[in-house]
Fold:
Amino acid sequence: MHMEKSLLLGAAAAAAAFFPGSAVNAQPTPDSIQQFAQCATTNYEGAELLATQPGSAEEAEVLAEYGRRSCATPAVGPGVLRGAVAEQLFKTDFGSIGASPRRETIEIFTIDMRELETLDANAKKRIDYVAFGTCVAAANPEGSSKLLTTKVESAQEKAVMTELVPQFASCLAAGERFTFSRADLRSALAEGAYRLALSWTLNGEVVVTGIRDPSKSVSCKVRTISGTRMRRTVCLTEAQWSARAREDEYDAEDFKRTSREYEEIQTTIMTRTRFTPAG
Structure:
């Protein structure tokens, strides 16, 4: 399963053109965006939005349908609206990364890596944003979950985002730069956290993101907990899986070396015992 990214449109006219026929809130505020998301997830399924590919005609139609019904659509880009819906769904469906889902059927969009190359620049950018958010969520699940409990544009939100900065750097490809607004960033992290939370609960190996740098793509694998017979799902970037594989190799070599040293000590003790004169 794979991921995408968000784009901010500033003008009410642009939003009205993007969502023809929708009810538009002329002065978007954090509260109006949250109210839209609550309306979409409370009165309608909400999750059908996350099953559409960012930048697609299907996504635009779902958002427009919310507006045609009863959800006033703030004049912001679809990525921010989508992120707000993802945040509400995260709270109702999971609550935290690693928690069991609270409903049976959850759909999120998937993308074929070959299809990625055929998308326009805007769609690729939005995919990259969500992939980035998923990578950050995998690197710091607790911090990403905590962010979604903060009030939008609050000091606490800023503080948690600052704590996540080390993960931001590790989830960017060499030379890559994103010009996020805080709304863009929160939206990307919200959808990334939601996708990761779902993938965490699936039985078996699953790729969460679709991203052009394979080392930043997140995959989940079932692993045995060291020293036990219990198994759990672990989600890491490919770079993190490679690092873990190297650590496992080092640990295996250390175990072999320690075993050899132990055997040599035991052999020495037995030899001394056998050939040392009594008394």
